[in-house]
Design a protein that fits this description.
By secondary structure, the chain is of the alpha/beta class. It contains 12 helices and 7 strands.
Length: 259
């Protein structure tokens, strides 16, 4: 049994840890524990709860208001792992500067990033978005339609990205992507980037954005992007979505072609 003296000796250390990592503990509480408890109590997944909130408060056909309502729900109710407003402004700016006609999103989730991208597309552009989870895709499709985008502008593809990417050209008519936004499983970033290279789906000068490269992080992806010689790479530092005290960042890659 631990003596009181030893326990007291460790107390300052424990207090220091709690203070230093308090924001991560709050994230754990809001993103995991609260959602898990409400899932059990209501029988309704949090993604569906978020959509119900949108239905009650968002203006149909107004994508910017849909995003703002999403943000309200995430700040006030429960945490959703979407790109959020802070990093969203980075994505919006780069999308505006590039004005791409063919955009690929990996990781639709609830459709936040999809609406963000779709509202910034130039005339005649098309967005292809890929989601592995059919339940999330069902919510995302309703969010996308609520925001006012139809199948001519946004094509939602359901399936694992490693199976969808090789079929994008033949099955979905995407010859090459001018702009790619990655916001799915971080461990899949490098694999899917290399799949895009292998199947020659990146246009010369294409922009590839990857969210959450600092938290939870994608170190192998960043190392490859910086050392393979195919990209110019920079990281836009920001904060984690809806948690300003937790550092995060968006990686921007410019594809310079195969070497």
């Amino acid at each position: 049994m631990v003596s009181p003296a030893i326990a007291l000796a460790f107390l300052p250390f424990l207090v220091t840890l709690l203070i230093r990592y308090r924001h991560y503990l709050v994230l754990l509480y809001r993103a995991v524990l609260v959602s898990w408890l409400r899932d059990r109590l209501t029988g309704v997944p949090r993604e569906q709860r978020a959509f119900q909130y949108l239905l009650a408060h968002a203006i149909p056909g107004d994508p910017r208001h849909v995003l703002q309502t999403f943000d309200q729900w995430c700040y006030r109710c429960e945490h959703l792992s979407s790109v959020g407003p802070v990093k969203g402004r980075i994505v919006e700016r780069l999308l505006y500067e590039r004005a791409p006609l063919r955009v690929l999103e990996l990781g639709t989730y609830c459709g936040y990033g999809t609406v963000l991208l779709a509202q910034g597309l130039p005339p005649g552009a098309r967005l292809y978005t890929v989601e592995v989870d059919p339940r999330h895709a069902a919510v995302a499709e309703k969010v996308i339609r609520l925001a006012g985008f139809d199948e001519r502008t946004v094509e939602l593809i359901v399936g694992p990205s490693e199976e969808v990417i090789p079929r994008l050209r033949e099955k979905h008519g995407l010859p090459k992507a001018d702009f790619v936004f990655m916001d799915h499983w971080k461990r899949c970033y490098l694999r899917d980037l290399r799949l895009l290279e292998t199947h020659q789906l990146l246009a010369e000068g294409a922009t590839v954005l990857a969210d959450n490269v600092l938290f939870p992080g994608a170190p192998h992806f960043l190392q490859y992007a910086k050392t393979c010689g195919k990209y110019r790479c920079k990281v836009h530092r920001a904060s984690l979505e809806y948690f300003r005290a937790i550092p995060d960042g968006v990686a921007e890659l410019c594809y310079t072609g195969n070497r």
